[in-house]
Amino acid sequence: MAQPIGRHFLQIPGPTNVPDRVLRAMSAPTIDHRGPEFAALTREVLTAVRPVFGTSGPVLIYPSSGTGAWEAALVNTLSPGDRVLAFETGHFATLWREMAEKLGLRVDFVPGDWRRGVDPEVVRQRLADDAGHEIKAVCAVHNETSTAVTSRIDEVRRAIDDAAHPALLLVDTISSLGSVDFRHDEWGVDVTISCSQKGLMLPPGLGFNAVSEKALRARESATLPRSYWDWEPILAANERGFFHSTPATNLLYGLLEALRMLDEEGLPEVFGRHRRHAAATRAAVRGWGLETLCLDEREHSPALTAVLLPPGHDADAFRGLVLNRFNMSLGAGLGKVAGTVFRIGHLGDFNDVSLAGTLAGVQMGLELAGVPIDQGGITAALRVLEEA
Q1: Exposure string over 226-238, b if 16+ CB within 10 A, otherwise e
Q2: Which end of the chain is less congested by CB atoms within 10 angstroms, N or C?
C-alpha cells in the first residue's frame, strides 16, 4: 500500500476509534495508585460506570480483555461439574463454550446457524425440562460481534422466570455496552461481562463484571479455582477507593472521560444514534442487492452489520482491496463465515458523515472487486440519514 493520505477509517467492530478527548485524558501523568488522588478517581469511575450497565450495584474492573471478564464471571459463580446452558449464536459464543469446558463445566450447547440470536422459547423449554435444577447458569451473548445479531435478553429473562428456574443469567455485552440499550438490573442479569475497546471508545485493556446480589451469594458456594479473578478482594479494596492489584491507571483516566462523553450526549441519544446508523447501513446493503447475515428483523445489531458476498467472491480479498485503495479497515468473517462475510463497524465515536464516507468506500470497493451491485446503495443510506 502506498503511503496513506488522510485519516484511516477504522470500521472494524472493535477496537473502535478513540476520541481525542479520551486520548488527551489518558496522556496525563500516572499517579500513585495507593494515594488519595487515585482513591478519588476510583470512586468517581465506579459511580459513573454504573448507568452504562443499567445497574445500581457493583461493577468490577480488571486490567484484562473481555476474555478475562468471561473467566471472572464463570469462576466466581460456578463449581466444577456444574451444568450451564449456552447457545451457538456465533464465533464468540463458541469460544465462551470452549472456555467453560476447559474450566471443568458441563455445557449444554444449543446448536445454531449463526444467523439468529438466542431463542427465548428454547431457553424456557430447556429449563422447564430441568426439574432437578441441574443447570446452574444460562450464558448468552447479547451482541454477537461475529454475526451482527443481537439477542433479546429481556425475553430470555422472561423465559427463565416462566420456567421458575433458579439458574443464573450471565450475559456478554462486549460489543454492545455503550452502543446498544442494555439493562442489567431491569432484565435481572446476574453477571454482565464487558470490555473497554468498543462502545466505551477506549483502547483494549479493561474488563468488566457487573454483578447482582444473587451472583454475590453464588460466589460464597462456588468452588472453581480463582485468585486474580476473585471478586471479594477487589470489592473490599474498592470500598477504600483502591484495587487489590495494580490497576490500569491511565485507562481509568480515559474511561472517566468516555463516561462523561456518554453522559453529555445522553444514553437514549447514544442508543438512537447507533440504531439510525445501523438502519442506514442496512438500507445501503439492500440497495446494493446484497444480504445481511442476520435473518430476524428483531435482531439486527445497532453496533455493526455483517454482509454476505455472493458465491464466487472472496470477502477477505475484497477487504484487502478496500484497505489498499481507500485506507479503510473492515471486519473479517470469523469461524464458519470466514471468507464469505465482511463486517462494517458503526459504533463508538461515530457520526453521520463518517458513516457516509464508510459506505461510499464500501460501494467503490465492491465495484472494483467485480461484485455485481446496484449503485443505489449509498443513496438509500443517505435518505435514511437525511430523514432522521
Answers
A1: beebbbeebeeeb
A2: N
Q: Which of 117, 138, 124, 151 is nearest to 189 (CA)?
A: 138
Angle, helices 213-221/231-238, rounded to nearest 10 degrees: 130
- Whole-angstrom CA distances from 238 to 40, 58, 128, 235 are 11, 10, 39, 5
Got the DSSP string for 310-355?
Answer: PTT--HHHHHHHHHHHH-EEEEEP-GGGTTTEEEEE--SS--HHHH
Tens digits of residue pLDDT in 88-109? 999 999 999 999 999 999 999 9
- Strand partners for 109: 86
pTM: 0.97
CB 215 within 8 A of CB 48: no
For 226, the grid coordinates are 480463582
The model's pLDDT over 289-299, given as tens digits with 9 standing for 90+, comes to 999 999 999 99
- pLDDT of the residue at 2: 62
Is residue 321 within 8 A of residue 362, CB to CB? The reply is no
363, 367, 371, 374 alpha-carbon torsion, rounded to 10°? 60
CB 199 within 8 A of CB 348: yes
- Percent of the chain at pLDDT > 70 equals 99
Grid cell, residue 250, equals 491511565
Helix, strand, or coil (residue 184): coil
**Antiparallel, parallel or unpaired: β 328-332 and 341-345:** antiparallel
229 vs 219: CA distance, rounded Å: 12
Beta-carbon neighbour count of residue 123 at 10 Å? 26
